[in-house]
Amino acid sequence: MSDTAIASSPAIAIIGGGPAGLMAAEVLAQAGMAVDVYDAMPSVGRKFLLAGVGGMNITHSEPLAPFLSRYGERERELAQLLADFGPDALCDWIHGLGIATFVGSSGRVFPTDMKAAPLLRAWLHRLKGMGVRIHVRHRWLGWTVDGSLRLATAEGEKHCKASATVLALGGASWPRLGSDGAWQPLLAAQGVDIAPLRPANCGFEVAWSEHFREKFAGAPLKSVVLWFADGSGKEYRKQGEFVVSDAGVEGSLIYAHAAALREEVARQGRATIHIDLAPGRDLARVQAEVAHPRGSRSLSSHLQSKLGITGVKAGLLRECLSKEAFNDPVRLAEGIKALPITLGEPRPLVEAISTAGGVRFEALERGLMLRQLPGVFCAGEMLDWEAPTGGYLLTACFASGRMAGQGVLDWLARVR
To answer: How far apart are CA 90 and CA 339, in angstroms?
Structure first.
């Protein structure tokens, strides 16, 4: 596209080529609008592609009520976003791209080939056929005095006058893929109310001993139950697995409770989780197995044969229990069933899978238009919501993109 075309284009501008931005572009193009998508990276959908490397978890098959509950304090707002484009509608949309899906044993929904790339290729092919123009290596810098969009390119700064703008710039996790949070001061300068960005679906620091860190960093703890109670007495409990990292703990079981753990650390300076290393066996049975005569066998061999406590589980027991407790059968059994681990600060935002905070819903009108900036809409992870992994993040990004696209259409119909 030439400089002149950019400067005079009456098209709708989408800033950000992730799922939310591309979905907004599709809604608008389907309505016959001219659409330009601008992305700072050399290609679009980079975080989407990386998220699919280990298996593209697109959404979740659970009933809508528990699905919506995953959005915590923003359940009401996300329910509005998902009303027209929830998990079932998202699956139908994917099937319309020629991508088959299946439901895994956990209830998570995946493309049959488990990959994101074929889905993105099919989608971009459709968008191109609709006339959507995609401009990469175009970084948004804000607005000029006359309201034109400022775009940094390899050829220098360019200006674009758009009939409406959708901002879908992501949060601030994985900045090397484009979501660096650089939009915050640009919107704050316009008076937009923004909740501070914080890590979500993140690991937490633990003060491991050097010996434990060197021996077990990277080791997964499988088939355990994590539970903790926050300052208000609310209890959280879930079975799954997590990973001992060099800095602390991470993985799906930690991410599932990350929001509550982060808030507890913010209030108290720390949070204590408890790990059941032998789920399926009650405390009385574990006490009996621990106290069972072991003859000439070492305690480690005894715990392995009787309770399957070995490797990182055995190491964690020795790391978290005192020598006295470890040699007391009653206290040892209690530790196996409820091993306390004290968590410190969340790991840095750049390491997080996703972001909490962002443009507050209170700063938006219906259709996700900014109250302070008529004709400017926001979508995706830059909005103030969060959710655990499991397909909830992507589903809400897609849905918010659709709502922003429809919001643009509704606004243009009113002002034209």
So the answer is: 41
